[in-house]
Amino acid sequence: MSLVLNYTYRLYPDAEQEAKLLDWLEICRGSYNYALGEIKDWSNSRKCAVDRCSVSSEYIIAADAPFPGYYRQQNALPQAKKEYPRLGEVPSQVLQTNIRRLHDAWEFFQKRGFGLPRFKKYGQLKSILFPQIAPDAITGWQVKIPKLGLVRINLHRPIPEGFVVKQLRIIRKAVRWEAVITIESDVKIPTVQPHGRAVGIDLGLNKFLTTSEREFIGRPRFFVDKQRKLKLLQRRLSRKTKRSANYEKARSKVAKHHNNIAFSRKNYHYKTAHHLCSDKQVGMIFAEDLNLKAMSRGMLCKHTLDAAFGQFLNILEFVCWKKGVFFAKVNPNGTSQTCPMCLEETGKKDLSQRIHECYFCGYKTDRDHAAAEVVRQRGLELISTQGLCGMETACAVGLPGVEETSSRSEAKSDSRKGGRRTRNAQP
After folding, report:
1. Which of 135, 80, 132, 72 has the alpha carbon at shortest distance from 102?
2. Would you give the DSSP letter of residue 159?
3. What is the tens place of the pLDDT at every residue in 376-427?
4. Which 3 state secondary structure label does DSSP give 297?
């Protein structure tokens, strides 16, 4: 199994190269919209009833006309270049990958039943892909791009030895250009196994993150704090004439402000993930498998999307893999209603109730800290087998294939009596 990584670098094209890149993006946008139009016309022509047509309009396409699939539209590109010579300015593989992007979105739409691809407006296509690039195309400060020449690149970190450059994607973000270089190697990295001390984390809006070791990390309000300035910039943009020079200046300011919010949020997520993995004794991190789509539609949807829990969990999983820390997600149901000491259900809590107090064993702590402890216990239960990590957890009783030892039975009886049980012994 090969290892594939994406490295992002800053590009610095000159004025002529930047104008050519912008022209390529518009040509690809036109080909994307034309191919999507063919697919929509073919689909609409199959919607009418067999015995009658629509009163207003109808799409007249032969009944035996095949569906305009990827290979059919890709094979039509050479003939299209003869009719529209402007298509020849773009590298042929870039046009092919652009059509591939459309059909990936179409297949994804058919698979899940929603998310129909839309026509892209002016400036909405932000990236182009070069699926093949020469292994020696990248030097210390330049990258050789087909039909574009040598472009300055800030190679702030060198490509590791043993990796081969596979493809290059150029992205336009506001007024800056970025190059995402995909590298591949045949090196085999073993899967991280559970080891060391376990930590459970609980994500929330009052506190961004709470660990089972009583560490509380606040939540910066990336979008909310900068929303006032964004509203001002968007109001100025709405008063400009479209496609004018002043409109483009105002649009670039709005785009830069959006990128500033996104970059600061992503930077914070990376720093938090590295902070959790910085302790060498931490070998396992467990988090809740949250229903992020449902959370983003609730009463606190703006604050939930501002926190970007999904992006943080993806970053945390990658950082754990890089640092050799085991990462897993557990069932999130009832983590705030379960006592981490006696494992009894304490009932539903309002959002305003920030203290967990068990009526059975008397255990009292912060609500988020109690939930993080429950997440940790569920994570250990998820990976628990006899003798693993040198610990036996009381919450692992009842797992298939695991016998109930004397220590577990004693802990189970103590919890039913309402007494506190001791924490798991560390390896």
Report:
1. 72
2. P
3. 988 998 887 544 444 444 444 444 444 444 444 444 444 444 444 333 433 3
4. coil
Which secondary structure element, helix H or strand E, spans residue 202, and what is its range? strand 197-203
Which of 112-144 are b and which e, b meaning 16 or more Cβ less than 10 Å from the residue's Cβ?
eeeeebeebeeeebeebbbeebeeebbeeeebe
Distance CA 61, CA 147 (A): 38
Q: Which two tokens stand for residue 337?
A: 């209603």
Provide the b/e sequence for 10-41 (b: ≥16 CB within 10 Å): ebebeeebbebbeebbebbbbbbbebbeebee
φ/ψ of 408, rounded to 5, equals -70, -40
Amino acid letter for position 151: V
Dihedral sign computed on CA atoms, order 304, 306, 309, 310: positive
For the chain, domain boundaries: 3-45+58-185, 197-417
The β-bridge relationship of strands 3-12 and 142-145 is unpaired
Of 284, 312, 311, which is closest to residue 382 (Cα–Cα)?
284
Give CA–CA dist 353/420, Å, rounded: 23
pLDDT in tens, 70-113: 999 999 999 999 999 999 999 999 999 999 999 999 999 999 88
